[in-house]
Each structure stands twice: as structure tokens, then as C-alpha cells.
Design goal:
The protein has about 60 residues and is an alpha+beta fold. About 25% of the residues lie in helices and about 15% in strands.
């Protein structure tokens, strides 16, 4: 599973990390860091965090 982040669309709400803190990490300004990896068994968490993004800046690719 791969996570693609549209960094230009990310508004720094942090809902992805609040929903799935083991998958999504934020920088010091509250913006999601690109390059998130999904550990085995965390696929549902990755999807939940992506769906929590109000800007739809996160795309999950299986």
C-alpha cells in the first residue's frame, strides 16, 4: 500500500494524524509529512486517516 500526499492541498488541519497517529506524522507547522509508510496490519488506519482529511489531500494506492 502506498500513500500519496498532495502537499499543495494540505492545509495543516492535522486530522489524518489525529485519526491515525501511527501512520501519519506532522511537521513542526502541523502539515503532514510526505513519505508515510504503512506497516502490515495498519491499512485500515491509513484509510481512516485519509478519509479524515477535509482537503482530500491524501490518496491511498493499493
Amino acid at each position: 500500500m502506498r500513500i500519496d500526499i498532495d502537499l499543495a492541498a494540505c492545509a495543516g488541519h492535522g486530522q489524518c494524524a489525529a485519526t491515525s497517529p501511527d501512520v501519519y506524522h506532522l511537521d513542526d507547522d502541523g502539515f503532514v509529512l510526505d513519505g508515510a509508510t504503512v506497516a502490515d496490519g495498519a491499512e485500515d488506519d491509513a484509510r481512516e486517516g485519509a478519509s479524515a482529511c477535509p482537503e482530500n489531500a491524501i490518496t491511498i494506492r493499493d
